[in-house]
Batch of 2 targets.
Target 1
Amino acid sequence: MIFTKQLLSSILFLAIASFTATGVSTPKGEWSFVRNGTTGITASQVIVVSPTLILMLDRVLGDPLQINGHQAWVELWNLETNTGFAVNAITNTFCASGAMISNGTMVSVGGQMVESPPNVTVPPDADGRMGIRIFEPCEDPSGAGCTLFEDPETLHLAAYRWYPSSLRIFDGSLMILGGTHEQTPFYNTDPENTFEFFPPKDNGQTRFSPFLARTVPTNLFPRAFALPDGKIFIVANNQSMIYDIEAQTETPLPSLPNGVHVTNPKDGTATLLPLSPPDYIPEILVCGGSNTSDSTPSEELSSQDPASDQCTRMTLTPEGIEKGWSLERMPEGRMMPEMVLMPNGQVLIINGAGTGYAAYQSVNDTIGNSNADHPVFTPVLYDPDLPLGSRFTREGLPTTDIPRLYHSGLTLTPSGNVFIAGSNPNPGVVENATFNTEFQVEFLNPPFMSRERPSLSGIPAQLDFNQKVTFSIDIPRDLHTNEIKVALMDMGYSSHAFHSSSRLVFMEAELSDDQGSLIVTTPPNNRVYPPGPAYIFVTVDDVTSTGVRVMVGNGAAPPVEEQGVRLAA
Ligand SMILES: *[C@@H]1O[C@H](CO)[C@@H](O)[C@H](O)[C@H]1NC(C)=O
Ligand SMILES: *[C@@H]1O[C@H](CO)[C@@H](O)[C@H](O)[C@H]1NC(C)=O
Ligand SMILES: *[C@@H]1O[C@H](CO)[C@@H](O)[C@H](O)[C@H]1NC(C)=O
Ligand SMILES: *[C@@H]1O[C@H](CO)[C@@H](O)[C@H](O)[C@H]1NC(C)=O
Ligand SMILES: *[C@@H]1O[C@H](CO)[C@@H](O)[C@H](O)[C@H]1NC(C)=O
Ligand SMILES: *[C@@H]1O[C@H](CO)[C@@H](O)[C@H](O)[C@H]1NC(C)=O
Ligand SMILES: *[C@@H]1O[C@H](CO)[C@@H](O)[C@H](O)[C@H]1NC(C)=O
């Protein structure tokens, strides 16, 4: 079942008479790209770790930022000053994954072995393939004193994982999926077809996945999502399935149509669409990638092969699965697109290339080193609530001239705009190539960034599940209060065209008669929103507030107990 706007309104926007204070409409502003700041590393992985801070992670190979007399590959970015500083890491975080866990700690896992000696001194134990890195909650707005903790001898994964993905699950732990063992030329020829968890389950053993085995050689960074019943949906290569963590069973789902592959090195992307009360029916959207055959060796592929413009969507109910994937097309093909859930429930599709592949130095006719060409410079918005055929729009969306190809990263910020950095389809730092190592930071500002916005106050720092919470809201008088959306969001961990753990759960909300407070009902349980940090954004008349950070659930270290009430089956 798809929620129409009307239905959503009737669920969320209870008994509020349509009200216009002035009748004069104030300009809603315009979308814009704004450059601000320069990173010291390539932002190939990006995660918001506090209301003011973004953690970026990269690679032991040439980033100019220095720490302790050697190259830095981790950087904290202060969104208040738009400047960054180096954070010490022990192991190589290149092509790692990660997420926040239930006690508010960020965990980064996997990475790369040390490459052919870079022209810098790095610690001898920098092999990051079993890396586990802990970034504890950082309360200083400037990040002062906040560090990344590693102890590779005693704290490490069970298997080598370069190019794994990961996500926070219903008990607040991290599930870690797949990866490869060694430097592979293009396809995953040395796969780690297993799952594991942090903190470990199964006495630290890995769990073999027949699904991952079936999806080689194009199954790196499997796109995985925690469903509202606690099971996991995974799409890799051209296949999909549901994994039941508790029963340890895999249920195959329909393959993607038309032979389109969507995981690295043929990166499309995917998202779980916003979940809405009362039923939180999960729908998955998968876009971009490539339809060239996996049996074609990379030297016979071309940087000019058109990327797929295909999007497919499936509702993960028995009836929805029976219907299978429904097809739609983006305005253009994209290799390595990124999807960002916006607080109003729309999906921003941005970045990537019109032709070619992820990775570098592998296809027949690279552009410099890049396997991809024809960067796509204009984002597009997808509105999941509109009827099939009318969901894509780029009206008012601006165009940049910075290519964001392989090894770029971006995230929604607590301010409600989008932080975009990185791109480096090169082995090391390259200047003056067609596709340089990119250090410029750019923000995509939605129209509301340039006008008066609703503001929220009095939100408790910690929220239980299935709880009614009242907080204050100050709504600019020109906004129509008959359309209010309250979003509870995880902004995800961006790595390789995938924002793992990113999630938007709409909450039922009631505006007080004096329009000064909102009564919001939190998600029913820890499966609808895996327990951990979140940001609350309120959108009134399509103008979104700044996000307010909360801890959802009891804030304990994983694995946490079941919380809230179960949904009726
Ligand atoms: C860049 O960010 C800084 C710090 O927030 C701000 O003072 C400055 O106005 C911004 N510049 C632009 C062009 O937005
Ligand atoms: C590393 O050093 C060698 C020898 O000094 C030099 O030839 C090479 O260009 C350097 N590489 C980089 C990436 O700076
Ligand atoms: C999926 O890809 C495999 C090769 O990786 C291919 O054999 C199979 O036919 C594809 N399935 C569909 C439905 O396109
Ligand atoms: C690489 O491209 C060239 C020029 O199009 C072509 O002649 C050659 O056969 C290609 N090589 C391979 C291995 O496909
Ligand atoms: C493969 O994708 C390209 C780009 O979208 C398209 O032009 C072509 O028709 C597709 N080929 C097949 C066999 O579907
Ligand atoms: C890149 O080009 C600029 C402008 O032509 C030049 O000043 C700079 O030295 C070049 N950098 C390298 C590494 O060649
Ligand atoms: C959160 O839990 C993890 C896993 O047990 C632990 O490593 C970390 O120190 C905890 N953080 C806090 C703040 O308790």
Target 2
Amino acid sequence: MAVLWQARTLFFLSFVFNALAAITRYIPAGQETLFHIQPTTTDSSSPSSYTGSTSDNSQTLIPPVPPTDPPVNTLFAVQLVNGNIPGLSIPQQGAFLGFSIELSVSNHILGHNGTTLSVPFLNLLANLQERGGRVTVRIGGNSQETAVLVPSIPDGSALEKDKSTVYNPTHTPPLIFTPEILYMMANISSLVNVDWFLGIPFIDAPNWRLDVVQKGQEILGNRLLGFQAGNEPDLYLPHGHRPQGYGPASYTGEVQSLVDTMRSQGLKTQGQIIAPNVNRDWTPEDVFNTGFLDDFVQELGIISVEKYPNDNCAAVFNTGGTVHNPQDVLPMYLTHDTGVNLAQEYLNTAMIAQQLGKPFMMFETNTASCGGFPGVSDAFAAALWGLDYGMTLAYSNFTGALFHFGGQSVYYNPFTPPPTNQSAFHQWTVGPMYYANLAMAEVLGKSNQSQVIDLNANGGNPSTPGYAIYENGNPMKVALFNYLDDNSGAHDLSVAISPGGNTPASVRVKYLLADHVTARGNFTWAGQTLGAEFQSDGRLQGELNVVTVPCDATTNTCTVTVPAPGFALVFLNDQAYTDSTPSGPTTTFATTAFTKSVNTATIDPQVLETSNGHSGKDRTGFSSTSKGSSPNGATTLMDGLGGVLLGCLGAGLGAVLFALF
Ligand SMILES: *[C@@H]1O[C@H](CO)[C@@H](O)[C@H](O)[C@H]1NC(C)=O
Ligand SMILES: *[C@@H]1O[C@H](CO)[C@@H](O)[C@H](O)[C@H]1NC(C)=O
Ligand SMILES: *[C@@H]1O[C@H](CO)[C@@H](O)[C@H](O)[C@H]1NC(C)=O
Ligand SMILES: *[C@@H]1O[C@H](CO)[C@@H](O)[C@H](O)[C@H]1NC(C)=O
Ligand SMILES: *[C@@H]1O[C@H](CO)[C@@H](O)[C@H](O)[C@H]1NC(C)=O
Ligand SMILES: *[C@@H]1O[C@H](CO)[C@@H](O)[C@H](O)[C@H]1NC(C)=O
């Protein structure tokens, strides 16, 4: 048995690492240890080659022509009423949409060490905090399963493949990381309001490696919201990770062993476990039916699942499965039905979680597993779809959902740093999924009271979904989508909203726009953008554009236009608007360290001399010359935050942050 088990483990490892080795061949030198695609969720057995890279793939697809027989109705009404109407979701937080970052790429996103953080990442998080109050980020994924926390790595890096422990003939070693990753997380949380999730490696169960729990709890304190007990345990058996017979009861037994061991080591267990993290082969109820919820009523902090609506594994890993043509899958990201069908599977689980008073999260998701589809996951369709999907999950009583990051050469990343050898002249690329997070933070705002309802708008036409957001029985916002693509204006929607109660003189509208559903850049939210490929320092650029729409006092309606394609968020009153909108100039971190040529910010040398990670309260010495940055873009956060920031500016000055990786 032991021998068999070991053989299976080796088989699994060789499967994983063959996959990684196959992929990393196409990734720029120096990147191998850090950026790679994980064969994440759907079946990805026998991967052998990787075929794509976002940076050298500029595939733009053809937008579908709007249907003509029958045409989509473009004039419709939305009637809202005051009061606690049936069907509202539970109250949701502005941090509903967060991020899921593979542990293996986390240092490229977070920074180099606790004093050298990625400034664009801080800015991207700050944008969300200002709108939704808070951000949640998971560091984990498949790479958490084999990760080993070590005290230090000889070359001083925070994360690496373990070159001393080669597991298989491909000589691809597992991941090691140091507490510096945890310090980076903690230090980020001292600058922006971020809470974190981690994962406990399950590969060697029941030989638990709990250093990540001990150090995580110690370093992150209450910024750490819990640990995943395994990642997609329902796929352990098909992936050769567990022996025949492994089922939901076996998993429950492993979690019991984990909890017992945590307790015996004096580690906090109350509310710390995130489970069952199932993906495809088991439902959450399959696990619950083994007595899971009774057994771990104290320890279970969050009920969680992981799901993507589709996968691109056959193309990326040559699985022998059906290769999906991006042009053919595009329509599935231009309909409300995709998100609705996915959420439907979990309505029962959501109700169970609600009855137990536990959060229920979609812990890892995106457009399609195995990196997404070129021309789809990196196009405007994904921004509209991701936002619509997020709102459907909120309406379906999930309490949060995390958009996943793979690595350098995937299509679905909400944002991506430049390849290491390009960091001297390139900045970050912000993708459509980030815009979905940004708009969602405003949809829900900071009140913690937002209740979402799917309006079944326009007779339930899946090309034109709409939602209302209520707070304490009052309609506050209306969210309207137009998935149709027609620049002539003939398919722009004209939506007559009756706001319920007293009709205001006017309402304010923010739009999420791009030229086409297939556009791979030039996305704007309320007129502002995060720039083109390799051009973002994480700050919004351009003038804020909020449209005021007058209301008609005789018909009690406010008629809002939604371009084809586009999304409109309608603020029905001042409170709704101020609760979601950043007050005053954007408070972000000035970029300095990244690029020598594109973005050269100036720093008063005297400020640097006195900063050194300790003082730095005097921020007046900064002035940004960031290309295309907004006039107020260079302001920084509150007093006291300058310390780590300045330490990071100082460390990066002259050198280039990511060139050091
Ligand atoms: C970066 O490295 C890759 C892979 O070695 C190489 O193909 C590419 O030309 C390099 N780019 C620059 C700008 O040096
Ligand atoms: C953190 O990283 C910076 C940039 O690589 C480096 O200069 C600094 O020495 C590092 N700090 C520590 C404590 O390792
Ligand atoms: C940031 O992390 C480092 C570890 O690299 C730690 O020494 C330092 O105290 C941290 N700074 C803050 C402000 O937490
Ligand atoms: C969400 O929960 C609320 C409150 O329990 C309930 O009324 C509503 O029907 C649920 N929504 C769905 C889609 O199940
Ligand atoms: C919303 O909830 C968060 C965390 O649960 C809390 O920190 C914040 O203060 C709450 N906001 C309001 C306005 O109550
Ligand atoms: C963005 O807009 C500019 C100006 O209209 C255009 O030159 C550029 O090609 C667009 N980029 C993308 C990725 O659509």
